[in-house]
Design brief:
Blueprint (H helix, E strand, L loop, with lengths): L7 H8 L5 H21 L4 H18 L12 H18 L21 H23 L5 H12 L4 H8 L3 H25 L2
Helix pairs in contact: 1-2, 2-3, 2-5, 3-4, 5-8, 6-7, 6-8, 7-8
């Protein structure tokens, strides 16, 4: 089982050191899929989306030393996702003859509120939390128990159909799903506390 990632505050401190490869690997693993999906959902092609991901991470690497929370409600991920949103908007609106803005300029731009992007960013963040929580708890359950959960909670099977598919009682399916949902909820809660 993989280690639980550092708390967000300590990870932010650690990525200020460009030589801390472990911190950067964890940071990229958590946020690269989010930034990439936001770019793709806004109409960028695959190669452009990957370029955008790199631009965002270069901007973060160059400016992480300047970031500090203004109050308890300020979250690092909101700052990072603002950078991603601004970079995406720049990529969509820049003209071929226009000069590309410096990566650090992405941090200073203020885009108009965009509820659709904010909703998408939150959805992608939640998806990554679920994936990470699943990785953390998956090894604690038997294959049949996990499959019962997947069939009912992920693939949309009814409990009856899942019971028939697995040759188990409906009660066993309910119990399996319930146990895993409880553990996933706890893992997601712990991760959210770490990523504040």
């Amino acid at each position: 089982m993989q280690d639980i990632p550092e708390t967000r505050a300590s990870l932010v401190l650690r990525i200020r050191d460009p030589n801390d490869q472990q911190a950067w690997n964890e940071f990229v693993r958590l946020y690269q899929p989010v930034v990439y999906r936001v770019a793709r959902s806004r109409g960028l092609q695959e190669a452009d989306s990957m370029d955008l991901v790199q631009t965002v991470f270069v901007a973060i690497a160059g400016s992480i030393g300047k970031w500090s929370p203004r109050d308890e409600r300020t979250r690092f991920r909101n700052w990072l996702l603002r950078v991603a949103k601004n970079a995406t908007l720049n990529a969509l609106t820049r003209r071929p003859q226009a000069q590309v803005a410096e990566a650090a300029d992405l941090l200073d731009e203020v885009a108009a509120p965009d509820p659709q992007s904010e909703t998408l960013i939150e959805l992608e963040y939640r998806r990554q939390l679920f994936i990470r929580a699943s990785e953390m708890v998956r090894g604690d359950f038997t294959e049949d128990t996990w499959r019962a959960f997947e069939l009912t909670a992920v693939e949309g099977f009814s409990s009856e159909a899942a019971a028939q598919e697995l040759g188990k009682s409906i009660g066993t399916i309910y119990a399996a799903r319930s146990r895993i949902i409880k553990r996933l909820s706890e893992a997601v809660h712990n991760l959210e506390e770490q990523y504040k």
